[in-house]
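Operator note (shift B, R.M.): manual run for 4-hydroxythreonine-4-phosphate dehydrogenase requested after the automated queue skipped it. Running by hand, logging everything below so the morning shift can see what happened. Input copied straight from the record, untouched. If output looks odd, do not overwrite the archive copy; leave it for review.
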Amino acid sequence: METKTKIKIGISLGDFNGIGPEVILKTLADNRILNFCNPIIYGSGPLVNKMRKSLGLENFSFQQYKTAEAVENKRVNVINCWDEDYELTLGKPTPESGRAALQSLQAACQDLKNGFIDGLVTAPIDKDNIQADEFKFPGHTEYLTSFFDSPESLMFLVSEKLRVATVTGHISLKEVPQKLTPELLIVKLSLLLNSLRKDFGIQKPRIAVLGLNPHAGEKGLLGREEEEIIIPAINQLKNKGHLVFGPFPADGFFGTANYHQVDAVLAMYHDQGLIPFKTLAFETGVNFTAGLPIVRTSPDHGTAYDIAGKNLARETSFREALFLACDIIRKRQLVPVSPI
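Run finished. Output pasted below as returned.
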């Protein structure tokens, strides 16, 4: 369906020696995508052409531009972010692929800040290979939070079966207990509540909060974080009328599929939330950065160097990330929601 306000989705290339370009091109090779969004790849025409040929996508066509302001509907558009003729070394990170990943991300973010595109889908980066003077962050989430001057953000994994957010993100496990405070939990729960209302249209969301310790601390026997940090934060939001429940022991909660009874789950740390999520929705799950003034999604997988260049990567998660970005942009445009 053609519309005058077709959504412009910027796509950062990620590490081009991983599977990012492959899942991007496989997704956009389905021309039906062009009926509801205007995809804009931030990379380079020569590189996209090399990938097109390596994947055997002979009918895949695109238009090259220097700026997103000039892009066309009904076409795959490529913004040339560099002049160098970077060489593909599929399956292996190189200094060039790290530098290009940053150039792509910077250009897309600047266009998003300037309003030239409506949202961003990021292909996987190599978190070590992208490190530079301009990128000293553990991942996309932290970079975007800083770039868009947001005080906080929330890693939010989304699928049809399950939605999981995390209080802490890309930090070592030993740092997690020191990071947890009632104030931080209230901030993250508020971001999650607001996102469920604003981005997913759930007016009275139900949230389950997981404990940090085995058996959710067993009333303090196995740790005091539940009694001193998590329960006070839950009670504060309950007293305001929000449907927040817990803390639940993580193993039993997922083992008995209690996530079906709520709209989202808040985990205390990265792997506590992502292991069950990826077990249930690895090929269809999407990573959404909630709490930002812009819309950013990504597939829920990494660079997968081990299969890069073998034409084995499945584009399902990237396609779902593109769809979710469009859905959230539309919801934000149509139904403004005041924060709690």
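Quick read of the result: The longest strand covers residues 37-43. The chain is about 35% helix and 15% strand.
Leaving this for review. - R.M.
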